[in-house]
Amino acid sequence: MNLTQCQNPVELGNLAGKKGGILIREAIEKQGFANIILATGTSQFETLKQLLSEKNIDWSKVTVFHLDEYIGLPITHPASFRKYLLERFFNHIPQLKAYHLINGEVNPAEECVRLGELISKHSIDVAFVGIGENGHLAFNDPPADFETEHPYIIVDLDHACRMQQLGEGWFPDLEAVPHRAISMSIRQIMKSKAIICSVPDTRKALAIKNCIEGPITPDYPASILQSHPHYQLFIDQGSSSLLSGH
Protein backbone atom coordinates (compact mmCIF):
# COMPACT_ATOMS: atom_id res chain seq x y z
CA MET A 1 0.00 0.00 0.00
CA ASN A 2 1.18 3.48 -0.90
CA LEU A 3 -0.18 5.94 1.67
CA THR A 4 -0.35 9.69 1.03
CA GLN A 5 -1.39 11.92 3.93
CA CYS A 6 -2.76 15.33 2.99
CA GLN A 7 -3.69 18.46 4.88
CA ASN A 8 -7.30 18.73 3.72
CA PRO A 9 -9.85 17.32 1.23
CA VAL A 10 -8.83 19.71 -1.55
CA GLU A 11 -5.16 18.71 -1.42
CA LEU A 12 -6.22 15.07 -1.16
CA GLY A 13 -8.38 15.33 -4.27
CA ASN A 14 -5.70 17.19 -6.18
CA LEU A 15 -3.05 14.55 -5.50
CA ALA A 16 -5.38 11.59 -6.08
CA GLY A 17 -6.67 13.08 -9.34
CA LYS A 18 -3.16 13.86 -10.57
CA LYS A 19 -2.01 10.31 -9.85
CA GLY A 20 -5.06 8.98 -11.64
CA GLY A 21 -4.26 11.16 -14.63
CA ILE A 22 -0.73 9.77 -14.78
CA LEU A 23 -2.00 6.19 -14.72
CA ILE A 24 -4.60 6.84 -17.42
CA ARG A 25 -2.06 8.49 -19.69
CA GLU A 26 0.38 5.61 -19.14
CA ALA A 27 -2.28 3.05 -20.04
CA ILE A 28 -3.19 4.89 -23.25
CA GLU A 29 0.46 5.26 -24.20
CA LYS A 30 1.14 1.57 -23.57
CA GLN A 31 -1.95 -0.06 -25.08
CA GLY A 32 -3.84 2.64 -26.96
CA PHE A 33 -6.78 2.84 -24.55
CA ALA A 34 -7.69 2.92 -20.86
CA ASN A 35 -10.53 1.37 -18.87
CA ILE A 36 -11.40 2.95 -15.53
CA ILE A 37 -13.92 2.66 -12.70
CA LEU A 38 -15.46 5.75 -11.09
CA ALA A 39 -16.99 6.01 -7.63
CA THR A 40 -19.35 8.69 -6.38
CA GLY A 41 -20.24 10.30 -3.05
CA THR A 42 -18.84 13.35 -1.28
CA SER A 43 -15.39 11.74 -0.92
CA GLN A 44 -14.91 11.88 -4.68
CA PHE A 45 -15.80 15.54 -5.30
CA GLU A 46 -12.25 16.89 -5.37
CA THR A 47 -10.69 13.84 -7.00
CA LEU A 48 -13.08 13.94 -9.95
CA LYS A 49 -12.70 17.72 -10.21
CA GLN A 50 -8.92 17.32 -10.51
CA LEU A 51 -9.22 14.43 -12.93
CA LEU A 52 -11.32 16.61 -15.24
CA SER A 53 -8.63 19.29 -15.22
CA GLU A 54 -5.80 16.90 -16.10
CA LYS A 55 -4.06 17.81 -19.35
CA ASN A 56 -3.17 15.57 -22.27
CA ILE A 57 -5.64 12.77 -21.55
CA ASP A 58 -7.22 11.52 -24.77
CA TRP A 59 -10.64 10.80 -23.30
CA SER A 60 -11.82 9.42 -26.64
CA LYS A 61 -9.75 6.35 -25.76
CA VAL A 62 -11.20 5.91 -22.25
CA THR A 63 -14.05 3.59 -21.23
CA VAL A 64 -15.66 4.15 -17.83
CA PHE A 65 -17.51 1.71 -15.59
CA HIS A 66 -19.77 2.75 -12.73
CA LEU A 67 -19.21 1.35 -9.22
CA ASP A 68 -22.66 1.19 -7.66
CA GLU A 69 -26.24 2.49 -7.75
CA TYR A 70 -29.40 2.31 -5.69
CA ILE A 71 -32.19 -0.01 -6.78
CA GLY A 72 -35.45 1.76 -7.59
CA LEU A 73 -34.14 5.32 -7.43
CA PRO A 74 -34.97 7.42 -10.52
CA ILE A 75 -32.14 9.15 -12.35
CA THR A 76 -33.81 12.48 -11.56
CA HIS A 77 -33.39 11.97 -7.79
CA PRO A 78 -30.66 14.15 -6.21
CA ALA A 79 -29.02 11.02 -4.74
CA SER A 80 -28.86 9.12 -8.03
CA PHE A 81 -25.27 8.13 -8.75
CA ARG A 82 -26.02 8.16 -12.46
CA LYS A 83 -27.13 11.78 -12.10
CA TYR A 84 -23.99 12.49 -10.05
CA LEU A 85 -21.62 11.12 -12.70
CA LEU A 86 -23.43 12.75 -15.58
CA GLU A 87 -23.43 16.18 -13.94
CA ARG A 88 -19.97 16.01 -12.38
CA PHE A 89 -18.05 14.10 -15.03
CA PHE A 90 -19.56 12.71 -18.21
CA ASN A 91 -21.26 15.93 -19.34
CA HIS A 92 -17.86 17.62 -19.22
CA ILE A 93 -16.18 15.00 -21.45
CA PRO A 94 -18.45 14.40 -24.45
CA GLN A 95 -15.72 12.59 -26.37
CA LEU A 96 -15.41 9.57 -24.05
CA LYS A 97 -14.97 6.27 -25.86
CA ALA A 98 -17.79 4.80 -23.78
CA TYR A 99 -19.34 4.80 -20.33
CA HIS A 100 -21.55 2.19 -18.74
CA LEU A 101 -23.95 3.39 -16.05
CA ILE A 102 -25.83 1.10 -13.68
CA ASN A 103 -29.58 1.38 -14.22
CA GLY A 104 -31.29 0.80 -10.89
CA GLU A 105 -34.75 1.23 -12.41
CA VAL A 106 -34.81 -2.03 -14.37
CA ASN A 107 -34.78 -5.67 -13.27
CA PRO A 108 -31.69 -5.71 -11.01
CA ALA A 109 -30.73 -9.33 -11.68
CA GLU A 110 -30.82 -8.74 -15.43
CA GLU A 111 -28.86 -5.51 -15.02
CA CYS A 112 -26.15 -7.34 -13.09
CA VAL A 113 -25.85 -9.85 -15.93
CA ARG A 114 -25.71 -7.09 -18.56
CA LEU A 115 -23.00 -5.17 -16.74
CA GLY A 116 -21.09 -8.31 -15.88
CA GLU A 117 -20.90 -9.32 -19.53
CA LEU A 118 -19.67 -5.83 -20.46
CA ILE A 119 -16.95 -5.51 -17.84
CA SER A 120 -15.72 -9.07 -18.37
CA LYS A 121 -14.53 -7.93 -21.82
CA HIS A 122 -12.38 -5.18 -20.32
CA SER A 123 -9.26 -5.21 -18.17
CA ILE A 124 -9.52 -2.31 -15.73
CA ASP A 125 -6.47 -0.05 -15.58
CA VAL A 126 -7.49 2.27 -12.74
CA ALA A 127 -10.30 2.09 -10.18
CA PHE A 128 -11.22 5.24 -8.25
CA VAL A 129 -12.90 4.23 -5.00
CA GLY A 130 -13.67 5.43 -1.49
CA ILE A 131 -14.27 3.81 1.88
CA GLY A 132 -17.54 4.11 3.76
CA GLU A 133 -18.00 5.00 7.42
CA ASN A 134 -18.75 1.32 8.05
CA GLY A 135 -15.66 0.26 6.09
CA HIS A 136 -17.61 -0.69 2.98
CA LEU A 137 -16.02 -0.82 -0.46
CA ALA A 138 -18.52 0.21 -3.13
CA PHE A 139 -21.84 -0.87 -1.58
CA ASN A 140 -20.37 -4.09 -0.18
CA ASP A 141 -21.41 -3.56 3.43
CA PRO A 142 -20.07 -5.75 6.24
CA PRO A 143 -19.86 -8.68 6.27
CA ALA A 144 -18.90 -8.39 2.59
CA ASP A 145 -18.83 -11.28 0.15
CA PHE A 146 -15.14 -11.82 -0.63
CA GLU A 147 -15.81 -14.97 -2.66
CA THR A 148 -18.37 -14.24 -5.38
CA GLU A 149 -16.96 -14.11 -8.88
CA HIS A 150 -19.96 -12.23 -10.25
CA PRO A 151 -18.77 -8.77 -11.36
CA TYR A 152 -21.96 -7.03 -10.20
CA ILE A 153 -24.23 -8.16 -7.39
CA ILE A 154 -27.42 -7.14 -5.59
CA VAL A 155 -26.68 -6.05 -2.02
CA ASP A 156 -28.64 -5.06 1.07
CA LEU A 157 -27.58 -1.76 2.61
CA ASP A 158 -27.02 -1.90 6.36
CA HIS A 159 -28.21 0.73 8.83
CA ALA A 160 -24.82 2.43 9.13
CA CYS A 161 -24.55 2.77 5.36
CA ARG A 162 -28.04 4.22 5.08
CA MET A 163 -27.33 6.63 7.94
CA GLN A 164 -24.20 7.83 6.12
CA GLN A 165 -26.22 8.63 3.01
CA LEU A 166 -28.70 10.54 5.16
CA GLY A 167 -25.92 12.35 7.01
CA GLU A 168 -24.29 13.46 3.76
CA GLY A 169 -27.52 15.20 2.82
CA TRP A 170 -28.62 13.06 -0.10
CA PHE A 171 -32.01 12.20 1.42
CA PRO A 172 -34.59 14.08 3.55
CA ASP A 173 -35.00 11.26 6.09
CA LEU A 174 -33.90 7.67 6.72
CA GLU A 175 -37.15 6.28 5.36
CA ALA A 176 -36.27 7.71 1.94
CA VAL A 177 -32.91 5.91 1.75
CA PRO A 178 -33.18 2.73 -0.36
CA HIS A 179 -32.52 -0.64 1.26
CA ARG A 180 -30.90 -2.29 -1.76
CA ALA A 181 -28.38 -1.47 -4.44
CA ILE A 182 -26.42 -2.93 -7.34
CA SER A 183 -22.72 -2.96 -6.52
CA MET A 184 -19.54 -3.99 -8.22
CA SER A 185 -18.27 -7.00 -6.29
CA ILE A 186 -15.12 -7.08 -4.18
CA ARG A 187 -13.34 -9.51 -6.50
CA GLN A 188 -14.14 -7.42 -9.56
CA ILE A 189 -12.74 -4.27 -7.92
CA MET A 190 -9.61 -6.17 -6.90
CA LYS A 191 -8.98 -7.20 -10.52
CA SER A 192 -8.09 -3.58 -11.30
CA LYS A 193 -4.42 -3.04 -12.17
CA ALA A 194 -4.29 0.03 -9.91
CA ILE A 195 -6.63 1.33 -7.23
CA ILE A 196 -6.80 4.95 -6.09
CA CYS A 197 -8.73 5.37 -2.86
CA SER A 198 -9.79 8.87 -1.72
CA VAL A 199 -10.97 9.10 1.90
CA PRO A 200 -11.32 12.55 3.47
CA ASP A 201 -13.09 13.60 6.69
CA THR A 202 -12.98 12.77 10.39
CA ARG A 203 -16.14 10.67 10.19
CA LYS A 204 -14.11 8.12 8.20
CA ALA A 205 -11.31 7.96 10.82
CA LEU A 206 -12.43 4.74 12.55
CA ALA A 207 -13.01 3.00 9.23
CA ILE A 208 -9.53 4.01 8.06
CA LYS A 209 -7.95 2.71 11.26
CA ASN A 210 -9.78 -0.62 11.02
CA CYS A 211 -9.14 -1.06 7.29
CA ILE A 212 -5.43 -0.16 7.47
CA GLU A 213 -4.22 -1.36 10.85
CA GLY A 214 -6.58 -4.27 11.40
CA PRO A 215 -6.71 -7.71 9.78
CA ILE A 216 -8.22 -8.37 6.36
CA THR A 217 -11.78 -9.33 7.15
CA PRO A 218 -15.27 -9.14 5.58
CA ASP A 219 -16.28 -7.21 8.70
CA TYR A 220 -14.23 -4.29 7.36
CA PRO A 221 -14.66 -4.83 3.63
CA ALA A 222 -12.12 -2.24 2.44
CA SER A 223 -9.42 -4.03 4.47
CA ILE A 224 -9.11 -6.32 1.43
CA LEU A 225 -7.32 -3.46 -0.32
CA GLN A 226 -4.27 -4.20 1.87
CA SER A 227 -3.64 -7.21 -0.37
CA HIS A 228 -3.70 -5.30 -3.67
CA PRO A 229 -0.21 -4.79 -5.17
CA HIS A 230 -0.94 -1.31 -6.56
CA TYR A 231 -3.22 0.28 -3.98
CA GLN A 232 -2.76 3.99 -3.28
CA LEU A 233 -4.63 5.51 -0.37
CA PHE A 234 -5.11 9.26 0.01
CA ILE A 235 -6.23 10.47 3.45
CA ASP A 236 -6.36 13.85 5.18
CA GLN A 237 -5.86 15.06 8.74
CA GLY A 238 -9.39 14.13 9.69
CA SER A 239 -9.53 10.61 8.27
CA SER A 240 -6.04 9.78 9.57
CA SER A 241 -6.67 11.10 13.10
CA LEU A 242 -7.04 7.68 14.77
CA LEU A 243 -4.06 5.99 13.16
CA SER A 244 -1.27 4.80 15.46
CA GLY A 245 1.47 7.36 15.86
CA HIS A 246 -0.73 10.16 14.55
Offer a few descriptive terms:
Rossmann fold; 10 strands; alpha/beta; 30% helix; globular; seven-stranded parallel β-sheet; three-stranded antiparallel β-sheet; 7 helices; 18% strand; 246 residues
Helices and strands in order:
Blueprint: E1 2-5, H1 9-31, E2 34-38, H2 45-53, E3 62-66, E4 68-70, H3 81-88, E5 98-100, H4 108-119, E6 126-129, E7 152-156, H5 159-167, E8 180-184, H6 186-190, E9 194-199, H7 205-213, E10 231-235
Parallel strand pairs: 1-10, 2-3, 2-6, 3-5, 6-9, 9-10
Antiparallel strand pairs: 4-8, 7-8
Helix pairs in contact: 1-2
Number of domains: 1
Instruction: Provide the gyration radius in Å.
Output: 17 Å
Q: Strand content of the residues, in percent?
A: 15-25%
Let me know the number of strands.
Answer: 10
Unreliable spans: none
Q: Structural class, from secondary structure content?
A: alpha/beta
Molecular shape: globular
Can you tell me the CATH architecture?
3-Layer(aba) Sandwich
Quaternary status: single chain
Alpha plus pi helix count: 7
Main sheet: strands, sense, barrel: 7 strands, parallel
Spatial sequence of strands, sheet with the most strands: 1-10-9-6-2-3-5
Distance between the termini: 18 Å
What name does CATH use for the topology? Rossmann fold
Average pLDDT confidence is 96
- What level of helicity do the residues show? 25-40%
The top level CATH class name: Alpha Beta
The ordered string of helix (H) and strand (E) elements is EHEHEEHEHEEHEHEHE
Walkthrough of the structure:
- The protein has a single domain (2-235), classed as Rossmann fold (3-Layer(aba) Sandwich), CATH 3.40.50.1360.
- Strands 1-10-9-6-2-3-5 form a seven-stranded parallel β-sheet, sandwiched between helices. A three-stranded antiparallel β-sheet has the order 4-8-7.
- The mean pLDDT is 96.
- By secondary structure, the protein is an alpha/beta fold.
- The protein contains seven helices and ten strands.
- Helix 1 crosses helix 2 (45-53).
- It has helices at 9-31, 45-53, 81-88, 108-119, 159-167, 186-190, 205-213, and strands spanning 2-5, 34-38, 62-66, 68-70, 98-100, 126-129, 152-156, 180-184, 194-199, 231-235.
